[in-house]
Amino acid sequence: MNKVTNRQPRWTEEADPFAALERDYLRQMRWPRGWGQRSQRNEWTPVVDMFDKGDHLVVRAELPGVPEEDIDLTLEKGILTIKGERKPDPDINGDEWLCCERASGVFYRAIQMPAEIDSERVTADYKYGVLTINLPKLPKEQPKKVSIAVA
After folding, report:
1. Distance between alpha carbon 95 and the CA centroid of its chain, in Å?
2. What is the longest distance spanned by two Cα atoms in the chain?
3. How many Å apart are CA 71 and CA 107, to the nearest integer?
4. Whose CB among 28, 72, 88, 100 lies 3.0–4.6 Å from 104's, allowing a Cys bridge?
5. Calpha distance 81→58 (Å, rounded)
6. Distance between CA 121 and CA 135 in Å, rounded?
7. CA separation for the pair 78, 113 (Å, rounded)
8. In DSSP terms, which residues pair with 72 in a beta bridge?
9. What residues does each domain of the chain span?
């Protein structure tokens, strides 16, 4: 019988340029697309859609089963943070589970905004387990024309 040997380089994680890429790839492959993912801090990450409507951005996050009062939104230094908690179903004990795919517990998602946002006009709506956040963009500064007086 042939012995299988590992011929990969023996790098430490700090020296391995591909370690972080591989770790992120493996983390994403554990969960099918659309499922919340658990981070290293035992948080789950809600899935989001973000799109540009010209004068504003829209972010939609799936948070079924999360009461509105348990959702915390902040916009600071161009980063939108969505966090809160989905409590486990109190009617089901651990011994009764046959399948458990919906994450419960603390969730956290931070999204870098691709444009400057007018934080005074941000609005949010929560219907049917979907959080919709409207983020109006600040108008871009137009170049200023300076007249030169010729003496």
Report:
1. 32
2. 95
3. 9
4. 88
5. 14
6. 7
7. 5
8. 83
9. 36-90+103-136
* pLDDT tens sequence across 12-50: 555 566 666 766 666 555 544 434 444 445 678 999 999
Task: Tell me the pTM.
Answer: 0.65
Q: What is the pLDDT of residue 88?
A: 81
Residue type at 139? P
Integer CA distances (angstroms), 82 to 110, 111, 114, 124, 138, in order: 6, 8, 17, 11, 21
Residues of the chain with pLDDT under 50: 1-11, 31-40
Are 47 and 61 in contact, with CB atoms under 8 Å apart?
yes
Around 108, how many Cα atoms within 13 Å sit in the side-chain half-sphere? 8
Per CATH, which fold does 36-90+103-136 belong to? Answer: Immunoglobulin-like (2.60.40)
Angle at 148 between CA 143 and CA 150, to 5 degrees: 165
User: What is the predicted pLDDT for the residue at 5?
Assistant: 39
Beta-carbon contacts of residue 24 (< 8 Å; ≥ 6 apart): none
Residue count of the chain, please give it. Answer: 151
